[in-house]
Amino acid sequence: MKLPRFIRDNIVLKITSLNAIVIAFRLVISGFTQWLLAITFGEVGIARIGQVRNIMGMLTSISSLGIFNGIVKYVAEHKNNKQELSKLFSTASVFVLVGSFISGTVLFFGAAYFSDILFKSNDFTFVFKAIAFIVPFIAINRSLNGIVNGLSEYKNYARIELISYILSAMLLVVALYNTNLEAAILAIAVAPVIQLGVIIVVFGKVVKRYVDFKKLRLGLDYKNSLLAFTLMSFVSTFLLNYIELSIIGLIENKININEAGYWTAVTFISKNYMVFASGLFTLYVIPKFANIYTKEAFKIEVFNIYKTILPIFGLGMIMVYLLRNIIIDVIYPDFKGMEPLFKWQLLGDFVRLCSLIIAHQFLAKRMVKSFVVTEIISLILFYVLTNLFINYFSAEGVVIAHLVRYIIYFIIVSVLIVYSFKNTAEQGNKA
User: pTM of the prediction?
Assistant: First the structure.
């Protein structure tokens, strides 16, 4: 099918339109699998599986020492320089080996501890030991994904996302056949391995054009450059998932496990439609911002992204809100406690999108201090405000904290970016 000309002439819309198709399929598939999980394991099972997804999010970061955005940035900058790419991937190989070994070892020998902390029993020790052997595949998958994004291969990205998500969902459905929670957790854990296989099949030939695997050596030429992204990933991914795990426990202790299940379900819906934007960030925003050096050019690009994305995203969120009761009835039967959480979560996600678009300037320009400070402030705000609001608004307080957190975050990020351009201009005048 040929895209209309106004879409073909706008790279943001081209990526967005392809993403929209993938997300539409993803929402249908994830809606079905979430329905199966909800009717099979109830609110408690949804909360527990949410915790496992947080663990997988943490592993995605630490298994490759958080170099995904670094790979995206430097592949975008050096895609025509094979010598630099060879140095980049030689260093990336070291990071993957070290990250996989550390995280896999900790998970294997700490399996009983993780099982006891998350599930209040040792019944899931074997599951965590099994996941430990999957860790290297998670790291390799994450690194190859960085190449796809760095080259802005949005068509291949769409194919990989769609095929891997369908296959992962099929595996989860098979695992749920015997209503076995351990099997369901393993199916979720295997998803990155499936995606790795799809990347090799769909994108393998392109990867070989840019990465000469025979010439790769264990080197550290890009050590300092990638370590900056390790720190940023630790803050944005590892600590975020840790905070979310803590909040699930907080809701469970202060209210009950069912309310934790409601919040987990709402955040799962949120994460599914936020994927709509995450592909744009790595495929377009980081590579584009990496090559913008003036305040005026940055403002023009941000305005272009805002006017293209925000109306589409906003309309989609309004539809989600209007259809919230239908979504609950169809996907999460008897989860009526979710309904009050939607409006605050959706409002918070809209402000979050506005914030994250401009905050990717920190990643594109490797502004480590600004990124780390703003992320830590954001996470502290979320946890502190949740602790405060939950006493007055019950589980609704968590999503109110989500909204307030991102309003403050947006203001702080905007100020820091304006200051960074002002500082750059002053240094240029002195030179």
Answer: 0.74
